[in-house]
Amino acid sequence: AKKRGRNQYYWFTQQFKTQADQHLKLANGLSHALAADELTLYYQPQIDIQSNKVYGVEALVRWNSAELGAVSPAVFIPIAEETGAILPIGAWVLRTAMKQAKKWTEEGFKDLVVSVNISAHQLIEPEFAHYVADFMQEYGLDARHLCLEITESAAISDLETSYKVCTELVELGVKLAIDDFGVGHSSLSMLNKFPFQFIKLDRSLVQDIATSSRDYAIIRTVIELSGHLGMQVVAEGVETREQAELLRTLNCPEAQGYLYGRPMPLEQITAYLRSHT
Ligand code: C2E
Ligand code: CA
Ligand code: CA
Ligand code: CA
């Protein structure tokens, strides 16, 4: 028994060491990912369920590391948040998406809304709304083309500052979405206090809409509630026709997911916009 215990301990420390090494490699790589030009933006279409036309796109960052290969944002964004690299990376994402939004509006996509994910660290910067205003002026972008996606935990980390920043953003004419709604903390008080225009229903709820009567009931209720609050629901992670059909019958206005299109590089999303607007 003693021997086995030692083996387990050995296995555990090795595993831990590998994870710590990996973490360090990722943190190091991230610190020069921007300078090395390793980041790009992909865009995923967002669809008006009733008309089946595109109303917007969500920008999703991709990291192709020379050393580590392609790394998922689900892995590297949390590390960038820990190390602080999220601030320059987040600013780059915002600028790149806003510049592209301006190009698209000039190409004639007059009502397109480009959504950008914002981390807690960005949202609790007291000057954040001023940066956004500066970028809009620099690129000549009208605020109605920009939506910022915020998770509840981001806002909760410093309620006072994030509330102030969100209010300033809305005064500028920027739209706000609460992301990953329906998972994590209880979200109702946030909906009541913060000036969101969009509620993004988390994929984990949407994926079971056809098989779980509980998830169906929750989605129906959130859609009803959103109407009373003057907000619009975007269903995330729609993968099947059956899910889309149920959402349509519930009068869910918008959807996003592999059924309509995966996140894609610039050329491809631009072609998609041309054929779906
Ligand atoms: P998110 O904001 O909830 O983005 C939605 C994620 O779901 C994306 O993963 C997208 O590719 C994926 N997805 C969309 N439709 C479907 C579907 O039908 N089925 C399935 N299985 N997945 C679908 P991705 O691109 O890997 O991004 C993961 C997360 O990383 C994002 O979750 C977001 O929290 C974060 N992230 C990505 N880009 C940025 C960024 O520029 N800034 C910040 N702060 N976070 C980002
Ligand atoms: Ca998002
Ligand atoms: Ca989400
Ligand atoms: Ca998510």
Automatic annotation (TrEMBL):
Q: Which residues form the EAL domain?
A: 23-277
Query: What does the UniProt keyword field contain?
Result: Membrane, Transmembrane, Transmembrane helix
Classify the source by domain of life. Answer: Bacteria
Q: What is this protein called?
A: EAL domain-containing protein
Q: Which organism is it from?
A: Paenibacillus hexagrammi
